[in-house]
UniProtKB/TrEMBL annotation:
Protein name: Heterokaryon incompatibility domain-containing protein
Biased composition (Basic and acidic residues): 477-492
InterPro entries in the cross-refs: HET, HetReg/Transcr_Mod
Signal peptide start-end: none
Heterokaryon incompatibility domain sequence ranges: 67-215
Top-rank taxon: Eukaryota
Biased composition regions of type Low complexity, renumbered to the chain: 533-549, 607-638
């Protein structure tokens, strides 16, 4: 069946006179919706159609005539175009006008649903009512027709061909293995040009619109229209899911934004099992994940998810949430937070709130610290519903909310206090850079960054971009006492973030497995007898210039394994315990040795400056094989390793393939111990790097008075208090604020969630002498 080629641009834009406009009749039933019957036409014909009313009531759904739902980006809201609807003029924006032209058939009518045409946008009450039906509209559609826009750069056909090729490659085991070799291990040798069309496809505005989540996230089949090119949604979403789950560094190098596409796949479809998709069953998590998306009305960041199945898993108050466009944005955000918390079985809502969100004075909503501002880009949630953390063991939240005073009263225990904090970690600090990119990245002087932040801490909150200002930064002024800090050698070599944190914040000189994680020393009789406790006053970790009180496992009577080492605590803290290390396997089946080896592999191969010293030999368990598969290229280009002219890899005893990159495995005996070098041969630096990049960006590393390593939000400060709250899978940071009416000693402000190595499995909840208290959070 042929179709018309596309819209004809008007020679002159004219505003439609109000007297000629189409007048909507009322929708009498709550489940009633309008459908557009678009008449056939050729390229130059005006759009002509009529509106009919149908019912989405379950009792009537079988009698409903088949229809197709249109998904598009509104774009410019000026209505300079028109549809002749039942003989009158219905003004349209250019985007829906172009979409209707693109999907109009030349020889028969087409029954469609499009929000701009089928909802009276000037009737606030109707808009609120129809919002509840959006998920049903798209779920029951015969097809979803997605208008991505015009193909202005002429790359749509190449992008579609790349998607088809990748779909075939990822479904073929041998071809996928060859692709993985060339676009992971040998990524630095690959050309950018073949991937430009796909990169442009993934950056189209449609993928960032908040309403499309429910429009495309159903089981209804969908076709994407980009100019004259059609792209199958199932193929694109599958390819995006594979790239997003396995090829972080590939996506970063070629600027391919598949994360937003894989996120959309079946987002509104309740899974049959509670496996990986259980995150989707939490309404607060859904709101959090949607924060990068664009919304013309920021209340739609809540209302666009009223049809999501997770809302029915909350309490009765949450289930009764309805769209009300008469409410202010501030009231909408507070209202949904209260509804979620009152029926919560966990504290994911609080994990979504971070103190260091940048805001201009004229954009502030004056929200309580426990209410997320959903307008701003989030940090990665450490305590998401799917993680195995259980800091408060199996407890449930014990809280009350004073809505008038906007105070959250919640029970928990006080654990520790921050004494040493890092700079805010850059989002690329742990990204694997190869070739010229690696050399360029190493020019970052972390020591000078640390010194600058000691002199002017107002930069602490300047790295979390927000969606409305597109990377414009803001900060919060604050005062704090100066800390005794190891001063970096300004004349020494510039260091990687991993080394800078280890030396300047943790206080160690070398990477090794013999130094025991300080909190573990307190429970060791051998350590206590030797008077090497890290809890003496002042704590050795209150200043990282005093590592002399460290105890080596090799010099004590400790029954020791590597999990007790400070290095293991360090690499786990930087990755949130590696909870997403390998999504193809249950977390409980992955050994701590694998985490340790992968952190060591990243350290030895990518976190040290290049050296001309002799390279370490490969592991004796490695064997050399030759890849027989031809590497994939969108434009059929040859992509073998340019240095070797082949695809030689080494396969270790675990079956993990890695290229012969001994140029990164310099001995550096003065910095990294031989045992870490030995471990690194069996690790996967790419997996560890992906986790570290995702978890650390815009956060700070810190050390507590008792010696715990901690990763928290960018707004944390020295003297912030570590607490474990009832129902929390992770600890939280609180900060004292001025006295309140009902709290003579003062209240608290929520700084945000944190990872604290050694407190993630309920250890503090079982500790002797721990007393619960009520924290009043404003």
């Amino acid at each position: 069946m042929e179709r018309s080629k596309g819209p004809r641009s008007p020679e002159k834009l004219q505003v439609v006179p109000r007297l000629k406009r189409y007048v909507y009749g009322p929708l009498k039933a709550r489940q009633s919706v309008r459908f557009l019957v678009l008449q056939p036409g050729s390229e130059c014909d005006p759009l002509i159609g009529s509106l009919e009313v149908g019912s989405l009531d379950l009792a009537d759904i079988e009698q409903l005539l088949p229809y197709e739902a249109i998904s598009y980006v509104w774009g410019n809201c000026d209505r300079y175009f028109e549809l002749i609807c039942d003989g009158d003029i219905l003004p349209l924006t250019q985007s829906i006008h172009d979409a209707l032209h693109r999907v109009r058939l030349p020889d028969q009518p087409r029954r469609l649903w499009a929000d701009q045409v089928c909802i009276n946008q000037e009737d606030g009450a109707e808009r609120s009512q129809q919002v509840k039906l959006m998920n049903s509209v798209y779920k029951n559609a015969k097809n979803v027709l997605v208008w991505l826009g015009s193909d202005l750069d002429g790359v749509a056909e190449k992008a579609e061909r790349t998607v088809r090729q990748l779909n075939e490659v990822f479904k073929d085991t041998e071809a996928h293995a060859a692709f993985k070799l060339n676009y992971e291990e040998n990524l630095a040798t690959q050309s950018l040009k073949p991937w430009i069309p796909l990169a442009k496809l993934t950056k189209l505005p449609w993928f960032r619109r908040v309403w499309i989540v429910q429009e495309i996230g159903t089981t209804a089949p969908a076709t994407l229209y980009w100019g004259d090119t059609e792209i199958d949604w199932d193929e694109l979403s599958f390819v995006a899911t594979v790239l997003n789950g396995q090829y972080y560094h590939f996506r970063t190098r070629f600027s391919i934004n598949t994360s937003s596409i894989s996120y959309l796949r079946r987002r509104f479809v309740e899974p049959d099992t509670a496996y990986y998709d259980r995150n989707k069953g939490h309404f607060a998590y859904e709101l959090h994940k949607a924060r990068p998306l664009l919304a013309g009305d920021n209340r739609d960041r809540i209302y666009a998810f009223l049809g999501h199945y997770s809302i029915n898993k909350g309490g009765k108050e949450l289930q009764n949430l309805t769209a009300d466009y008469s409410k202010s944005l501030k009231d909408v955000y507070i209202d949904v937070a209260v509804r979620i918390l009152r029926g919560a079985q966990d504290l994911v809502m609080l994990s979504s709130a971070h103190y260091d969100v940048p805001q201009k004075d004229n954009e502030r909503l004056d929200l309580p610290s426990w209410v997320p501002d959903w307008r701003y880009l989030p940090l990665h949630i450490l305590g998401s519903p799917s993680v195995p953390h259980r800091a408060s063991k199996d407890t449930k939240p014990d809280l009350t909310i004073d809505e008038d005073a906007r105070i959250l009263h919640i029970r928990g225990v006080r654990v520790d206090v921050l004494t040493t904090t890092s700079w805010q970690i850059r989002k690329t600090a742990f990204q694997i850079r190869q070739g010229a990119q690696e050399t360029k990245e190493r020019k970052v002087d972390w020591g000078n960054i640390l010194q600058r932040e000691e002199l002017d801490d107002t930069s602490a909150n300047k790295r979390t971009p927000n969606i409305n200002t597109n990377h414009n930064n803001g900060s919060q002024q604050r005062d704090r006492p100066p800390r005794q800090q190891r001063k970096p050698d300004r004349n020494g070599p510039r260091t990687h973030a991993m080394e800078a944190l280890w030396k300047h914040i943790c206080g160690y000189e070398t990477f090794n497995l013999s130094d025991v994680y300080p909190p573990f020393l307190a429970t060791s009789p051998a350590v206590t007898a030797a008077n090497h406790s890290p809890f003496s006053s002042p704590s050795p970790l209150s200043s990282p210039t005093a590592p002399t009180s460290r105890i080596s496992a090799t010099s004590s009577a400790l029954p020791y394994d590597h999990r007790q080492s400070a290095f293991f605590a360090f690499i786990q803290t930087l990755t949130n315990g590696c909870v997403s290390f390998d999504r193809s396997r249950p977390y409980s089946t992955i050994s701590s040795e694998e985490f340790l080896a992968s952190g060591a592999a990243y350290l030895t191969r990518y976190a040290q400056p290049p050296s001309s010293s002799a390279s370490r030999p490969a592991s004796s368990s490695s064997v050399t094989i030759q890849s027989q598969s031809q590497p994939f290229s969108p434009l059929s280009s040859i992509s073998h390793d340019r240095d070797r002219g082949d695809s030689t890899v080494r396969v270790n005893e675990n079956g993990n393939a890695s290229p012969v990159t001994t140029k990164f495995l310099s001995s550096h005996s003065e910095l990294v111990s031989p045992d870490i070098h030995a471990l690194s041969c069996n690790g996967d630096p790419f997996k560890w790097s992906r986790e570290a990049v995702m978890v650390t960006r815009h956060r700070r590393f810190a050390v507590t008075r008792k010696g715990y390593f901690l990763l928290g939000p960018g707004g944390l400060q020295e003297n912030d208090v570590v607490v474990v709250l009832r129902g929390g899978t992770v600890p939280f940071l609180l900060r004292r604020v001025s006295a309140m009416g009902n709290s003579p000693g003062g209240g608290w402000m929520l700084v945000g969630e944190c990872y604290v190595h050694g407190l993630m499995d309920g250890e503090q909840w079982d500790a002797e002498g721990v007393e619960e208290e009520v924290f009043s959070i404003t």
